[in-house]
Amino acid sequence: MNNSIDNIFRDKVAELDSIPKEVEWTPEKGWASYQQANNHKAKPLRRFILTATSTAAAIALIVALAVNSNIFAPEVIALQNQTDSITEQQLPNGSRVWLNKNSSIAYSVRKSGEFTMDIDGEVYLETAGTAKAPYTLRAGNAIISIKSQAALNVRAYPNDYDIDITVTNGSVKVADNILGQGLSLLVTKGNYCSVSRTNSLVYATLNNNPNYLAWKTGEITFDNTPMATVTQVLRSFYGQDIEIADDSIAYIRFTGTYTNLSLDSILAAIEDKTAIKATRLHNKVIISK
Amino acid sequence: MDSMLKQLKRNNTKAQHHFYQKFSPHLFRVAYRYVNNEQDAASIVNSGFYNIFKNINSFTYSNNEMFLGWMKKIVVNEALTLLRKKHQFTSINEINNNEPQTELQSDNNLTAEDYYKMVQELPSEQRTVFNLYAIDGYSHKEIANKLGIEESSSRVYLLRARRALQKLVSDKMICHEQ
User: Cα A107 from chain centroid?
Assistant: First the structure.
């Protein structure tokens, strides 16, 4: 019975409790990384004391600032891109933003310089190095805080399962605004963070998706990429239904870099380099052998 | 354990550190079994602990086994979230799902690590389904729901994983005999 395979492997794997010998990870390294990423706060009692003694002074300060900086009613500027191309805009504080198709932002800049932006769809933001006040970006249930020069891509279409944040430069902090409880993840250059819309999980890891900015640069890269992923990337980039007819094709690997080419040109390159055929059938592309 | 849990519920950092030291090796093993990549496994473990500490107040402790099972589930969910991000699990069909049933003999010359590594050698979909079904006890319905595939596809991936593992064990046994 094949159940014996399951039982044997389950029993053998259950014997193992220690770290695999070939890895360099240790609990101490893991804990150090955990603390750095999760930004632990001061103990509750100390926090309470600080809060209690500074509340009155803080309220007075806030009121004074509000009167001077028009804090209660900053002007909100909306920018929409309902076209099939990318929109680029320079913002009043010197930042630059690019909007993907069907995307919009609504931003405001207080007199203090604090910048707030709500994102719907996909945007790439390069913050100005001269800005002295923090940026707060809101995309779905994700809150992104930026305190220094940074560049990042935020994808938050309404139908997306998660909100995806990829940092190209600098660092940002990401939290979930529903269950965040003051904890946020620090996401640095070259890393990617995902915030789940459904269960508020915030997750960060090294970015290994070379095509996260393909929508902006027009460049698509495949580096020994399995065909299942190749078709997924092409499907997403070109908005074309692409189906793999034979599941053995899914494991065929492909390498190539293409800039501002049509889907047909890339499919022709795939046919040229592999034993695969791409056939158009009604509104679909079928990949077969 | 009771006093440690009380401290964890108070968000005590020292208790969290001690707890992390105690349970992270086991949970790292679980994560590593799914992603076969040290960096990803480390990230999954930390995301897992983030959620364990965040949700510790809603957990009612009864015994160590259940507690470990709860933590493992959180880590497995984190691993699947990463795997779904990196890799699209596709629904597939296989015409002949029946195969001759053969017994797999356990080889005393093979260590637990050998068996662990064989699972890691499987392609991603097969490894994921085998881990979920055979090792972590999820049903095909649950697996299909978690991976966004058909239930029949889960059965196909499991079948392929078993075939591949059977061959890997046989090859290793032949090597030992030689």
Answer: 19
